[in-house]
């Protein structure tokens, strides 16, 4: 039996004071790749934010990478996020630091101190996303796709158990989206669990996988031909 990495039971997801998804029941096993789709405002981002504790889970039960979302203390959130790799639509790279220093900043902030270990880890994650030769580039010198690859590398730094990708191709053209998707699929094939919120149905058709849909305050699995 595969290890369960995320479990939600009778959970209600709130956006401010409004219940946006109700009675959510979901188990995600280690190694799965899952899309979350739905119209703007249907709850995709609120669902993702609840998983990385940007929004609190106040109704139902939920565990993610061995953390209980309903009893999570504020002081636990940084430790939870070290076990998650989070990829955003807008990259969120530090504009005044080059690629290497963006990644070193995260490692030092999460407790790494040995210079050689830091260097080796940075090279390892950049190699995984095809950006090993770009360490000295500043973010503004990179294309959108290259910036997102660096953001994915950043998400891998602390060897997360689960990657949450919230519209990772939302700001990219179709060809670049495919390139970024190839990176994510390769990471998944190497054993990482990925949950990806997206509105890019062309990618889902090209790279079919388990798909959950947010609609009418519910989250349910859909088969590809009905997407």
TrEMBL record:
SMART domains membership: AAA (SM00382)
Keywords for this protein: ATP-binding, Nucleotide-binding
Gene Ontology MF terms: ATP binding; ATP hydrolysis activity; transmembrane transporter activity
GO cellular component, one term: plasma membrane
Entry annotated with the keyword ATP-binding: yes
Keyword ATP-binding found: yes
Domain ABC transporter: 6-227
Gene3D superfamilies: P-loop containing nucleotide triphosphate hydrolases (3.40.50.300)
Free-text function comment from the UniProt entry: Part of the ABC transporter FtsEX involved in cellular division. Important for assembly or stability of the septal ring.
Designated name of the protein: Cell division ATP-binding protein FtsE
Organism: Flavobacterium enshiense DK69
């Amino acid at each position: 039996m595969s290890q369960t990495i995320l479990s939600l039971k009778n959970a209600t997801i709130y956006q401010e004071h409004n219940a946006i998804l109700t009675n959510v029941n979901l188990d995600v096993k280690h190694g799965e790749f899952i899309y979350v789709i739905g119209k703007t405002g249907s709850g995709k981002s609120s669902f993702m934010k609840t998983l990385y504790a940007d929004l609190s889970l106040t109704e139902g039960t939920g565990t993610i990478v061995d953390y209980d979302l309903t009893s999570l203390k504020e002081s636990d959130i940084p430790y939870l996020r070290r076990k998650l790799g989070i990829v955003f639509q807008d990259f969120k790279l530090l504009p005044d630091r080059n690629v290497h220093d963006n990644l070193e900043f995260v490692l030092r902030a999460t407790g790494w101190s040995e210079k050689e270990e830091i260097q080796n880890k940075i090279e390892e994650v950049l190699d995984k996303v095809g950006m090993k030769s770009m360490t000295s580039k500043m973010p503004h010198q990179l294309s959108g796709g290259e910036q997102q690859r660096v953001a994915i590398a950043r998400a891998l730094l602390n060897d997360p158990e689960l990657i949450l990708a919230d519209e990772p191709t939302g700001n990219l053209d179709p060809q670049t989206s495919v390139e970024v998707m190839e990176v994510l699929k390769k990471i998944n094939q190497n054993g990482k669990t990925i949950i990806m919120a997206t509105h890019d149905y062309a990618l889902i058709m090209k790279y079919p996988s388990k798909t959950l849909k947010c609609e009418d305050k519910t989250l349910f699995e859909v088969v590809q031909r009905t997407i």
